[in-house]
Specification:
- By secondary structure, the protein is of the alpha+beta class.
- It has eight helices and 19 strands.
- The strands form six sheets. Strands 1-7-17-18-19 form a five-stranded mixed sheet, covered by helices on one side. Strands 4, 8, 9, 10 and 16 form a five-stranded antiparallel sheet that branches.
- β9 and β10 form a beta hairpin.
- α2 crosses α3.
- The protein is elongated and about 80 Å long.
- About 20% of the residues are buried.
Length: about 300
């Protein structure tokens, strides 16, 4: 990689409210605070390197990592054709289902068509369980996206953390610490697709490669995110904790609406924690490009704040 490449995580920074748990009832409640409080997960990322690999089932887009499934009623001619088709991916599955009916194809078809709703519900539950095996860390190639700052960084009052991408064996990615072991994960770009290109699979012929492809596919309306993803299996995160190698954090950008007093407080917290070497990180403040719907970044220096 001749030119350094960065991937960015948008995060909220401070808020004037705090979430607390009632020890007796276990209920969560929110209290207002006089002084700003650093966002809990942002704090963990900046002061400990902890990053969150989430389940696709938690995503804000219900179409993300999902499918359109064909649940048409079966016809004997269609079933026989699928059984004879050696290239059909669900051939063995279909033959085993028919075997449960003593190879009586009409009886199998009648039962399937009569119970298609229950079969559909069971299938979707199984599919969700398969999708839930994956954990995903999402980042962006663009640190100056107006919409990303609005949606993921507290309406431009948050920050954007820049990770320097590494290259190993012609693959680009980042190093993470998982269960006390360092691993290299490749970053893969999300493919933005049109509505008619959405994964359409036959219940009889589901293919694991189709599931894999769906983990990197989103509807075209989301293309402004310029998203990349890192993926782990849930059983690979036994402790539930994943850390990004702190030396990869090379940039921190403060949003358009972040006040100087908040920047100063953040930099003091970073220096005090001694987790990150702030002298090796570049800090920026974002500003409007006059006359345009654009942002530009301007480097700020520690000497002016500490």
């Amino acid at each position: 990689m001749s030119k350094k490449k960065y991937l960015y995580k948008y995060r909220p920074l401070y808020s004037y409210s705090q979430s607390l748990i009632n020890k007796e009832t276990g209920e969560e409640f929110i209290i207002k605070t006089e002084n700003p409080i650093l966002n809990k997960n942002t704090k963990k990322m900046l002061l400990e390197g902890l990053v969150y690999f989430s389940s696709p089932l938690e995503f804000n887009d219900p179409f993300d990592c999902s499918f359109t499934i064909k649940f048409n009623k079966l016809k004997e001619k269609e079933v026989l054709a699928k059984i004879k088709n050696k290239s059909f991916s669900g051939r063995d599955t279909l033959k085993n289902m028919i075997k449960d009916y003593n190879n009586d194809i009409p009886k199998f078809i009648h039962s399937y068509n009569a119970n298609i709703k229950e079969i559909k519900d069971t299938f979707y539950n199984s599919l969700n369980n398969m999708i839930d095996r994956y954990r995903i860390f999402c980042v962006s190639e663009d640190p100056l996206s107006l919409l990303m700052w609005s949606h993921y960084a507290d309406s431009h009052k948050g920050i954007c953390i820049g990770f320097e991408v590494q290259e190993i064996d012609n693959q680009t990615g980042l190093f993470f610490k998982v269960n006390e072991q360092y691993i290299f994960l490749e970053n893969k770009r999300v493919k933005y697709i049109q509505e008619q290109e959405r994964s359409l699979i036959d219940i009889m012929g589901i293919d694991l490669s189709t599931i894999g492809n769906s983990l990197y596919s989103k509807y075209n309306s989301w293309k402004y995110e310029k998203e990349n993803r890192f993926i782990l299996l849930s059983n690979e995160i036994a402790s539930g904790k994943v850390k990004v190698v702190k030396e990869t954090i090379k940039e921190i950008l403060f949003g358009l609406k972040v006040e100087d007093c908040i920047i100063k407080q953040t930099l003091k917290n970073l220096k005090k924690s001694n987790y990150l070497n702030i002298c090796e990180i570049k800090f920026y403040k974002l500003f409007e490009v006059p006359g345009y719907y654009k942002l530009f970044k301007e480097e700020i220096f520690l000497v002016n704040y500490l």
